[in-house]
Amino acid sequence: MTDIDPTKTARPEILALKPYASARALADAAGILLNANENPWPPAGDTELALNRYPDPQPPALKARLAELYGVDPERLLITRGSDEGIDLLQRAYCRQGLDRVLVSPPCFGMYALSARVQGAEVVEAPLVEMENGFDLPDDLESRAADCRLVFLCSPNNPTGNLIDPERVAKLADAQTDSGLVVVDEAYIEFAPKTSVLELLDTHRNLVVLRTLSKAHALAGCRLGCVIADPAVVDLLRRIIAPYPLPTPTVVAAMRALTPEALAESARHLETLASEKERLVAALSSHPGVVGLWPGHANFVLIRARDGAGLVRSAQQAGILLRDQSAQPGLAECVRITVGTPEDNDALIDFLQGWRP
């Protein structure tokens, strides 16, 4: 168990920072509102949202609903503008320019390294190892992570789709107790078997989990995610988050997406995507132009084609957009394919039947 204060490795100037207190944070939206220099009239056509008023920085009802969804205490949760903002806040709170290091395991989501470089931190790489049936973390991950302020992992990983064993995460968090935080991005976890590391939060105070409503809950356009961490880490990040990070329409859309009826519909969509993924994998596995295939545990498939760039170009000409991953380490000629609707997948499979490298 790691019981050391997880903010002890944060930037001292952030620890000493007195956060900005917005008008809405100082008082709720009750009574006559003359404290925030707002326009007293809503804009034309706004009959429900009251967009002339600043939103609550951390809406209690939404926080309570997300805490219930993830099975955590509300005090462990900070709602953010997608996972991207959570990544950026962690980098700004823990990394000093030219002094601190951040570890990533490519191929992975590019924002981990980009945010570190924007902050002026050194990026240390521990590349994934290609295995017979997928990808895995390197055996020397712990030694490479030594003295890193932040270690970013993604499970299921984007773009390879591999899951990370929670026991491996616990081992790494134990090793990083005196160095910094272990951050596990679970953007795609709803598509995977139940392997979330959230249950480790009680025993590993330096563990942070990122979640988003963009994927399984179909709210990519709303930009809403959350950082789930020790309350001390949440308090630290609240010192530097924007005064009003959550637009009112985003909050309303999120609450609608988290009703029991909406969650049931999302579950049905996940079942359909799983079935469609099997159909897509079958079509790809028999294609002569596909020389490598990693189904993974998310809503996408990674393939290695005989001509990856050519496949992406030809598909675009046919009106189908795929993602070329060949610039990622170890993924020469690789293409990531998102599982779409049955109709989308019909079109893709029809295209593949006529495509040859």
Explain what you see.
Strand 6, helix 7 and strand 7 form a beta-alpha-beta unit. By secondary structure, the chain is of the alpha/beta class. Helix content is about 35%, strand content about 15%. The chain is built from twelve helices and 13 strands. The N and C termini lie far apart (about 55 Å). Helix 4 (about 80-95) runs parallel beside helix 5 (about 110-120) and helix 10 (about 260-285) packs parallel to helix 12. The protein is globular and about 70 Å long. It folds into two domains: about 10-20 and about 55-260, Aspartate Aminotransferase, domain 2 (3-Layer(aba) Sandwich); about 260-355, Aspartate Aminotransferase, domain 1 (Alpha-Beta Complex), CATH 3.90.1150.10. The strands form three sheets. A seven-stranded mixed sheet has the order 1-9-8-7-6-2-3, sandwiched between helices.
Structure, briefly:
By secondary structure, this protein is of the alpha/beta class.
User: Beta-strand level of the residues, as a percent range?
Assistant: 15-25%
* Helix content estimate: 25-40%
The tally of structural domains comes to 2
Task: Please list the strands of the largest sheet in the order they lie side by side.
Answer: 1-9-8-7-6-2-3
